[in-house]
Amino acid sequence: MGEAAGCDVKLAREAASIVRFAGYVFDLDACVLAGESGEAIALTRSEFAVLRMFVARPGRVIGRDTLLDVFADRRFEPFDRSVDVLIGKLRRKIEPDPKRPRLIVTVAGEGYRFDALRRPLSSQKEPFAAAQASRPGVSIGPTSEDRRPPRLSIVVLPFANIGGDAGQDYFVDGVTESLTTDLSRIDSAFVIGRSTALSYKNKAIDLKQIGWELNVRYALEGSVQRAANRMRVNVQLIEAESGAQLWAERFDKPLADLFDMQDEIVSRLANQLRAELIGAEARRAGRAPNPDSMDFYFQGQALLSRGFAPDILAEARKFFVRALGHDPNNVDALVSVGFVDMLVCASYMTDDPAPIAATAETNLAKALALAPNCAPAHGTMGGLLINTNRAQRGIEEFERALALDPNLARARAGIGLAHIFIGRAEETEAHVLEALRLSPRDSRLSHWFLHAGGAKACLGEYAAGVVWLRKSTDTNRNNPWAHFYLATCLAHLGRIDEARSEVDAGLAVNPKFTIRRFRAGVQSDNATYLGQRERVILGMRMAGAPEG
């Protein structure tokens, strides 16, 4: 292993000899880091020593000064930034995406924290905690006090093939493998690799033990059953520590093309699990005695799931700003604060949207600089572009997001909205229907229904618009724009009393709305769209919306 060959073997042998984490096997005696398939990863002596220190203190913040003290007699000088350079090199060797580190996490103003330890594979029969206790002064593995599974950490256990039809094994294994891959696309998620999860196939499963062994917070288990011409898939999300079921779902579908069915099931599961996991983390964050950057991020996300009324957006933004105060490079928080600011501009909540839009673009650009492959960042940038008269560029950003995460239904719905702004509102409904196919229970359904209903209003198809917009208001009463567009359609249909009631409902959510502000905040200069927009304004006026 080059420079690592001269490491201090005596020091290494004070601890358990092998530690597994994130698909790696770390042999302290041999000074070797390898992938689970056996391929060696070359580490220098300094990289080995730093990694060993992290493994010895899982979940604890290690300050730069501590790292410098350890290496001061070898190659570093006090206050040297070489430690940060070394961390960067180590991340490039072990992190799936070094620009979005999940194993070695930066704690702003404090140092670094190792967030991905697995249970040591000691050859001794003693329980792990007892093994630690037998080695005074050494803490190579997590104790009950300092062992903290990473947030959004999950293992997708091999689905069971009920019925014993061996011919269905490929479908069952395909669901497990594809779901593992798709969940790994969720930002900030830590997903156990398929090869590790498969080691539990056809074994009696103790979910608490699995949670301990893999150091994950959640486990997903499921089963597939084929009967006659139907396929049934059952899944449940379990909190590993308590064994409590957090969520369950069943898909019961007629047999068609198995691979198309697999794709649809996996897409729906991935989208629903995204929301369930974020909700679970938000509940944990609310109980955290000393919340950190990600705790504040999750709390902000939980608020956004309630709707996009001005007061909700303002409160959620405070959480994201607090998250950035703890970690200015928190990509998730940067994207989220950009999303909130984009919505404030797009929803005509201000008379001067330009500076707010500029702030949103700055934060999103920073997020993309830190994480170029972050699908939600591209999707949110797409939303900002289409709402600032750059719809074609916005569509390109949505398409980049979908290339990175084909399950990102929100990007598909965003493309539908963009088609309104480029004068092709007749194409919006198809994109919304595709988004609904991918994520039929998404927290943003109200807005997707609004996109389809708004397109119908622009096209003068008011009866169809009422159907879509009723779905939007029924789904979430905190979406003021569904009420205003519904009022437009009802007014054009001559149902003035109903239209006025919808205007009142919209103003109850967003009392600052005026037709003047709506007209001034136009998102596109496309001639077709501008002509269609006048129909919408006329309907709002007929319904009694305030002129301003």
Please tell me about this protein's structure.
The protein is of the alpha+beta class. It folds into four domains: 2-133, Arc Repressor Mutant, subunit A, CATH 1.10.10; 153-285, 3-Layer(aba) Sandwich (Rossmann fold); 292-406, Tetratricopeptide repeat domain (Serine Threonine Protein Phosphatase 5, Tetratricopeptide repeat); 445-548, Alpha Horseshoe (Serine Threonine Protein Phosphatase 5, Tetratricopeptide repeat), CATH 1.25.40. Helix content is 53%, strand content 12%. The chain is built from 23 helices and 13 strands. Strand 11 (218-227) and strand 12 (230-239) form a beta hairpin. Helix 18 packs parallel to helix 20.
User: Roughly how many Å is the radius of gyration?
Assistant: 26 Å
Number of helices: 23
Large-scale geometry: globular
Structural category is: alpha+beta
- According to CATH, the fold-level topology of the largest domain is Rossmann fold
Q: What is the number of independent domains? A: 4
Portion of residues within helices: 40-55%
Q: What is the strand tally?
A: 13
CATH superfamily of the largest domain: ABC-type transport auxiliary lipoprotein component
In a few lines, what is going on in this structure?
With 548 residues, this protein is an alpha+beta fold. The protein is built from 23 helices and 13 strands. The chain folds into four domains: 2-133, Orthogonal Bundle (Arc Repressor Mutant, subunit A); 153-285, ABC-type transport auxiliary lipoprotein component (Rossmann fold), CATH 3.40.50; 292-406, Alpha Horseshoe (Serine Threonine Protein Phosphatase 5, Tetratricopeptide repeat); 445-548, Tetratricopeptide repeat domain (Serine Threonine Protein Phosphatase 5, Tetratricopeptide repeat).
